[in-house]
Amino acid sequence: MRIKEHPILGATEKGATVTFEFDGKPIQGFEGEPIAVALRAAGVMVHRHTMKEDRPRGIFCAIGRCTDCVMIVDGKPNIRTCVTPLKAGMKVETQYGVTAKKEA
Amino acid sequence: MERYELIVVGAGPAGLSAAIEAAKAGMKTVVFDENAKPGGQLFKQIHKFFGSKEHKAKIRGYNIGETLLREAETCGVEVVLNATVAGVYEGRELTVMQGDSIKHFKGDSIVVATGASENMVTFPGWTLPGVIGAGAAQTMMNLHGIKPGSRVLMLGTGNVGLVVSYQLLQAGCEVVALVDASKKIGGYGVHAAKVARTGVPFYLSHTIVAVHGEDCVKGVTIGEVDAAWQVIPGSEKTFDVDTVCLAVGLSPMAQLVKSAGCEMNGIVPAVDAYGATSVPGIYAAGDVSGIEEASSAMIEGRIAGAAAAYQAGYLEKSDFESIVTAHEASLGSLREGMFGPKQRGRVQTVTEEGIVLSQSLLTKGYLDESDLAHFPSIQHGKTGVYPVIECTQNIPCNPCQDACVKGCILIGNDITSLPVINAEATCTGCGMCVASCSGQAIFLVEEKPLESTAYVSFPYEFLPLPEKGDRGIALDRSGAPICDAEITAVRTGKAMDQTHVVTMKVPLDYASTARFFRRR
Ligand code: SF4
Ligand code: SF4
Ligand code: FES
Predict the structure, then answer these.
(1) What ipTM was reported for this prediction?
(2) Of B69, B80, B206, B496, which residue is most buried, by most CB within 10 angstroms?
(3) Average pLDDT of chain B to the nearest whole number
């Protein structure tokens, strides 16, 4: 999914490669890029499930406006992953409603 | 409470321009923007801008953004990022949220340049991950270097839909179709044509019936709509895609001006020629006061900034008037033409010159052979190399005229006029017009009847770049394969700014139809 070389923009400047955790699994991304970008590069599409109907949501606006991309980051729910920079060792979890667990 | 002489809300093209103009005159100016980076949408714009030299035509949006930022820095404009202006109150007081803290500011003048937000449409499956806004696609590709998906369907054929489709192709995505419920393509024909010639089909009078998938997008069904906007049974087509991109228009983000008590004119604040709202000292500039191109937003910003400076006594009346006169003329020229505000909603069938518009361009995205004969910039059967300019709508643009030092291309003073070939001048085949054309609408043709071949040069902005000796297939304007082709030259240069001029050899009969190349 990453654009290796762009015909107009050339190579994208990125930070150091870092490892973070997505639902308990280690994933790599670039430091400082939005968490959502690192997840998309790893093939993750679903960021959360809605509270009432359990419907999946993912990136929609990518600029921090729609809140479709919110996840639990380092234990804090409702973090807009499209505008939150990735740091090494972050714990990112799929959000169900406002928690990390699927309600039975 | 901190006080500034001018507070600008929004560091996009309009806001930065307003701040620069005011700071240049000597005002203590700050710009607040809710994003982590300044520039608004400019840094996502990677195409060459339209307009004329004074509008920074043929310069790519992100380069214009860089220039604006440098200019702002030089003038001493303070830009505060990650700062959301929550409200504007009596006495021009503002509350600004930065992280968890809230601060209060007071501005002697305020310029609101909050821009626009994307419109939405709903259909079954619209909330599935993989359905994204066109702006999101641009953010992902052009700021973060990631493809939004592999196979994309675009809904909307305004300039945003057309430009983003082209950008998706540049990023290496496949665009399976452009779809619009309207009967006609909304954006510039030249933007549509550069997408169409790569082989992307347009479906006008079509809408999305449903997006399929459990956890994310796996496909999409579209259908043709009748006069009552109902899907015609049996017209449905399904595409295998992982992304559906929505480009269904923009709406001004006018909440702040509204909350400040400014009189509204529908969804936009009522403003005078300088951007002044009904509340003294509060101005609005850019998309917030009516959706237009970034080039217009920058001029509106300059005018509002100058007006604030004049009001505060930083500019003499005569200086203010000369600044405004120049900017107004420049803005006026951008607003002329078929796509200008005055023409909105009108059905147009002929150009300003009285030439019948190509219906094929408006419904399929490409010019039909039979449309071409009437245009003053399309020629064939000449000796030597000659330009063919497939620019057939009155858009505010003239870099082609400036590009040709030989004087082959004439537009005249009115920048919306169609380009005309100057029969007196001789083309040297330098390729500068091809690379400079913001619409990628200029081709060079050289016919060699004795060899039964023709050489066709065309603009190319994709990777991998063809190489001399490459063999493949020439595509026509619709993207259909028509004949064998061999690449004979690839020209690249600093002045061409990433638009390469590629020349292919084709059989003579295809001189006026071969317009793009695909490797075998
Ligand atoms: S190829 Fe060069 S000389 Fe010929 S029309 Fe274009 S700019 Fe002018
Ligand atoms: S041919 Fe000239 S006017 Fe038309 S898009 Fe190209 S540069 Fe602009
Ligand atoms: S995708 Fe809209 S807030 Fe992140």
Answers:
(1) 0.96
(2) B206
(3) 95
